[in-house]
């Protein structure tokens, strides 16, 4: 849903269903992003430059993926996944449910059929 529209296209979702959708999206997003987050953190913690004479252990994305897999195994990309999964799940739940509530309240405060006013409310 983008913006609040009081006339339902189909049967409207409940707040609990919006919360469940947010929870599920947070979980799926974290599962997909976790390996990239591990790479990002490894690069951030590396003090040496990526290139040059005194370059660090990780030099590029593909090189880092192969190096981590060879040295630590594929499971290394999922280190710290459980705490991060909880954070992402709760963030998605709160984001979806609060967006739904705020959109509904904005629709009540700015009831208009004028498209310019409606797009401001949707924004």
UniProtKB/TrEMBL annotation:
The listed locations are: Membrane
Query: Where the protein is mainly located, per its record?
Result: membrane
Q: Does the keyword Transport apply?
A: yes
Keywords, ordered alphabetically: Membrane, Repeat, Transmembrane, Transmembrane helix, Transport
What does the record say about its membrane topology?
A: Multi-pass membrane protein
| Gene Ontology CC terms, in alphabetical order | membrane
What family is this? Belongs to the mitochondrial carrier (TC 2.A.29) family.
Matching PANTHER family, A to Z? MITOCHONDRIAL DICARBOXYLATE CARRIER-RELATED
Q: What is this protein called?
A: Mitochondrial thiamine pyrophosphate carrier
Which species is listed as the source? Caenorhabditis japonica
């Amino acid at each position: 849903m983008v913006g609040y529209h009081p006339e339902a296209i189909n049967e409207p979702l409940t707040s609990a269903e919006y919360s469940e959708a947010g929870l599920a999206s947070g979980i799926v997003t974290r599962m997909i992003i976790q390996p990239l987050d591990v790479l990002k953190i490894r690069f951030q913690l590396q003090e040496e430059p990526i290139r040059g004479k005194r370059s660090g252990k990780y030099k590029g994305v593909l090189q880092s993926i192969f190096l981590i897999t060879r040295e630590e195994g594929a499971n290394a990309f999922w280190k710290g996944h459980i705490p991060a999964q909880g954070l992402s799940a709760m963030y998605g739940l709160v984001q979806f449910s609060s967006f739904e509530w705020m959109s509904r309240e904005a629709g009540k405060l700015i009831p208009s059929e004028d498209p310019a006013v409606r797009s401001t409310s949707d924004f």
